[in-house]
Specification:
Blueprint: E1 15-17, E2 20-22, E3 29-33, H1 41-53, E4 58-62, H2 66-78, E5 83-86, H3 91-99, E6 104-106, H4 115-127, E7 132-137, H5 143-149, H6 154-170, E8 176-181, H7 185-198, E9 204-205, H8 213-229, E10 235-237, H9 244-257, E11 265-269, H10 280-290, E12 298-303, H11 309-313, E13 318-321, E14 326-331, E15 334-341, H12 345-359
Parallel strand pairs: 3-4, 3-10, 4-5, 5-6, 6-7, 7-8, 9-10, 11-12, 12-13
Antiparallel strand pairs: 1-2, 13-14, 14-15
Helix pairs in contact: 1-2, 2-3, 3-4, 5-6, 6-7, 7-8, 8-9, 10-12
The chain binds iron/sulfur cluster.
Domain IspG TIM-barrel: 13-251
GO molecular function, one term: 4-hydroxy-3-methylbut-2-enyl-diphosphate synthase activity (flavodoxin)
Family: Belongs to the IspG family.
């Protein structure tokens, strides 16, 4: 029921990662990365499926060895979501996973080695329609660039990215996206801003090594929020030292809060105070957990009293506003005769939300 996002997106070229469009007018794709041993096929497949279940559009898997490449083949056969292989330096691994159906290669062409190796990877990507992600990281800049700039700066990150971009452009390859990640919010944000002016390709956003669950989510929200609000960013990954499933949830929450992309329920809840007529916090926590399977975008406001309850309920699909013993219930912004018993709030709300979701189209 809330309005469209006022954000005007940067116009980027669209590339395809498997069947997922990235860039152009495509929805901003949410990614995560497995943290299992890739050679443990069963564990990696299980994690990819868990990521898919919470809405991951694309999943990255690191492929550090030829054994991991062989495992990748088996993994790829068992999952539907497009897979990106994360490869550093070894061009033979890139060729191998291409043979096994990889949907995107995360490899920096400038790090592959001599010209013939670069050409073999780029030619293979071209022939097989596989896009590439150039991934620059403030913590691993080339030595010459580090020496030139003394420390990671936005200009240093962009220069590093453009080296790789120039190689691909020289080889007439334009199916790529780029990231310039840093753990410092200002460094990352300014690097992306500068890069956005220089290339047309989609940008993959991330604040790298952002931290643990809470601090990393906050840092990522601040950094990515600044960029997304300026229209920069076509896909994102939240890096958390936590379960990767949380990365996907946080990614969607960021997009949801900027009204860029909705998936599932947007809960509007008051922080509670002594005026609350039912236990708002436990109601919201229980419903967030119970309703995770719902992908239909919907605003649900759960407010403890009449101070702010009606105002929020009027702009939500489902709203509840706390009253003594029984609370007011709103559907599509309209107050209903039916009221909820405060002692049975969670079950009643769950039933109403499920019924409403069943009538609405999913994302
Ligand atoms: Fe307190 Fe009511 Fe405000 Fe919730 S809406 S914080 S219960 S005054």
């Amino acid at each position: 029921m809330h309005q469209e996002s006022p954000i005007i997106r940067r116009q980027s070229k669209q590339i395809m990662v498997g069947n997922v469009p990235v860039g152009g007018n495509a929805p901003i794709a949410v990614q995560s990365m497995t943290n299992t041993l890739t050679t443990d096929v069963a564990a990696t497949v299980a994690q990819i499926k868990a990521l898919e279940a919470v809405g991951a559009d694309i999943v990255r898997v690191s492929v550090p060895t030829m054994d991991a490449a062989e495992a990748f083949k088996l993994i790829k056969q068992q999952v539907d979501v497009p897979l990106v292989a994360d490869i550093h330096f070894d061009y033979r691994i890139a060729l191998k996973v291409a043979e096994y159906g990889v949907d995107c290669l995360r490899i920096n062409p400038g790090n592959i080695g001599n010209e013939s190796r670069i050409r073999s990877v780029v030619d293979c990507a071209k022939d097989m329609n596989i896009p590439i992600r150039i991934g620059v990281n403030g913590g691993s800049l080339e030595r010459e660039i580090q020496e030139k700039y003394g420390e990671p700066t936005p200009a240093a990150l962009v220069e590093s990215a453009m080296r790789h971009v120039d190689i691909l452009q020289r080889l007439n390859f334009d199916q790529f996206k780029v990231s310039v990640k840093a753990s410092d919010v200002f460094l990352a944000v300014e690097s992306y801003r500068q890069l956005a002016k220089q290339i047309e390709q989609p940008l993959h956003l991330g604040i790298t090594e952002a931290g643990g669950f809470r601090s990393g989510a906050v840092k990522s929200s601040v950094g990515l929020g600044m960029l997304l609000a300026e229209g920069i960013g076509d896909t994102l990954r939240i890096s958390l030292a936590a379960d990767p499933v949380e990365e996907v949830r946080v990614g969607f929450d960021i997009l949801k809060s900027l009204r860029i992309r909705s998936r599932g329920i947007n809960f509007i809840a008051c922080p509670t105070c002594s005026r609350q007529e039912f236990d708002v916090i436990s109601t919201v926590n229980a419903l967030e957990e119970r309703l995770e399977d719902i992908i239909t975008p919907m605003d649900v406001s759960i407010i403890g009293c009449v101070v702010n309850g009606p105002g929020e309920a009027e702009v939500s699909q489902i709203g509840v506003t706390g009253g003594s013993n029984k609370s007011g219930y709103y559907l599509d912004g309209k107050r209903q005769k039916e009221r909820f018993d405060n002692n049975d709030m969670i079950d009643q709300l769950e039933a109403k939300i499920r019924a409403k979701a069943a009538m609405m189209a999913p994302e």
